[in-house]
Amino acid sequence: MKRFLLTTHRWLGLISGIFLLAIGGSGSILVFKHEIDRLLHPALYNIDSSGTRLTLDSLYAIVFARHGEGFASLSFDIPTSADTPVEFTLSSRGGNFYEIRHYIVDVHPYTGAILREGDCADISTSFVHWIMYVHDGARFGNTGMLVVALCALIMFLSGITGLFYYGKRLRSILTFPLRLRGLNASQFLRSLHVYVAVWSILLTLVVFFTGFWMAKGIFTGGRWGTASHRKSERIAVSISACLATSSAILPGFSPDFVDVPLREGGFIEIDGETNARAFFGGGDASSVTFDPRTGGLLGAVDERSASFPGNIIPAFWALHVGSYGGAFIKMLYAIFGLVPGVLAISGFVMCRTR
Prior knowledge:
Strand order of the largest sheet: 4-3-2-1-5-6-7-8
Order of helices and strands: HHHEEEEHHHHHHEEEEHHH
Largest sheet: 8 strands, antiparallel
Structural class: alpha+beta
Shape: elongated
Radius of gyration: 23 Å
Distance between the termini: 20 Å
Number of strands: 8
Number of helices: 12
C-alpha cells in the first residue's frame, strides 16, 4: 500500500509539474494584483476627481457604443474611490474550445474619456490582467480552463497521498529542525521536498481544493456547447435604478459588482455582500437579478439564508485568494504560490536521479 501511495504521489506530481509552475507563480503575483497595477500605472489611479461624476448608465452607454456589437456581456466593479476609473470587462466565447475573449476598458468617471483598453490576452494592455488570464487558463479557452481545474485536483490528490505516505513521520518533521548541511545533492533535494511539502500541506489542500471547486463548472456539458449568435441588444433599464432596488430588496446588502448582457436573452446580475457576512466572507454570495428590458425582478439570493453549497462559496473564494486577512496573510499566500513550483522541480529531479 505504501509503495502504491508513493508511486501515485510521484506520477501525480510529474504530470502536473510544469502547469503548477505557471499556476503557482501567477497566483503569487495575483495576491497583490491591485498594488502591482497601481505601481505600473500610477496615473490611472490618481485621476482628477473635480467636477460632476457621470452616472453608471452614462459610462455603460459609452462602452456599449464602442464595443457592444463584439461581445456577449459586460461587467464592472463599483468603484470605492473617487480618484480611480471605472473598469469594464467585456467577454465573449467563440465557436471553438480555444476561443474565450476578455477585453478591458477603463473609463474616466468624470469626463467619460477612455484611459486604457485592450485585450487581456495582450500583455501590453495590462500585465496584471494578462497574468490573471494565464492563471485561470482562459488564455486557451475551455481547454485551458479544464487543464487548470485538473491540475488543481491533481495537486490536491498529490497532497492527500503524500499526507498518508508520511503518516506518523509528520510529527517528527514538524517538530524537528531542518538539517541540510552535510547532505549530498540528492539528500538535500529530498529533505527540501519533504519539509516544504509537509509545512505547506494544509494551505496546499485548502488552496487547490477551493480552486478546483470554483472551476468545477468546466466539467458541465453547457460549457462545451457552441456559442449561440444572438442579436446585440442594449439594456432598456437604468443600472443605477437596479442597484437601488437591490439594496431595498436585501436589507444590509452592499452591491459591488454588476454583470450586464450585451445580447438578447440575458439578465442583469448585481452581486455583493451583506452586513452579516462571515469571517471568511468576500465572495459576493448575495445577488439580485433583473430583466434587462423591463427591469422586473427575476430573483434574489441572500447569503444569510442560502443553503449548501451556495453558502460556502464566499468562504472558498476568500480562502483561495487570501482576502480574509491583512498584509501578513497576503504575503504568506504570495510565498506559498511558489511552493508548487519548488515541489515540482525537486520532485522531478529526485525521480531523474533516483
